[in-house]
Amino acid sequence: MNELAITVIGRDRPGIVADVAEVLARLGANLTDSTMTRLRGHFAMTLICVGPAAADVEAALAPLCADGQLLATVRAVTPDGGTAAAGEPYVMAVHGADRLGIVAAMTRVLENAGGNVTDLSTRLAGSLYVVVAEVELPAGMADELAGRLAATAAELGVGVTLRPVDPDLL
Q1: Cα–Cα distance, 153 to 84 (Å, whole number)
Q2: Given its phi and psi angles, is residue 68 left (phi above 0), alpha (psi -120 to 50 degrees) or beta?
Q3: What is the C-alpha to C-alpha distance for residues 19 and 101, in angstroms, rounded to an integer?
Q4: pTM for this structure?
Q5: Which of 163, 151, 161, 5 is nearest to 89 (CA)?
Q6: Contact (CB, 8 A) for 60 and 74
Q7: For the chain, what percent of residues have pLDDT higher than 90?
Q8: What integer pLDDT is reported at residue 50 of this predicted model?
Q9: What phi and psi values does residue 9 have, to the nearest 5 degrees?
Q10: 100: which residues sit within 8 A by CB, 6+ positions away?
């Protein structure tokens, strides 16, 4: 079996998820991980599936992209073998006035502490910018990291919180 990473982006419209999922199901591709969202009127989907060859999936998705409204990419990836999480799960939330460099600065602090961003989303609502990131942190690092994040947030003029993930929500 092939493991594939597939992206689909373009102007949002009803039915994109159903169209892509039907194409993949007809090919016998099993969706294992996916994320889909609408970003300011644009649709973005990234998924991992197991099944047919990349060329077969590309050919099957081509009709969905024929009018130029969607772009689909397919590439073979190496299976990760179901590795366990490398750290403790936390959620970092950042909020404040929109300005350049918030995501870059805050995620660099995480990386410098050995943390890994596993999911991140941002939203701009008027002048308020919000970042929510799920991260894995080295054991016992959260308190020290919270101080580093707070210092960087103060330099940026934003607020930050770091809290453990509630295991009941997973």
Answers
A1: 31
A2: left
A3: 36
A4: 0.80
A5: 163
A6: no
A7: 91
A8: 95
A9: -135, 155
A10: none
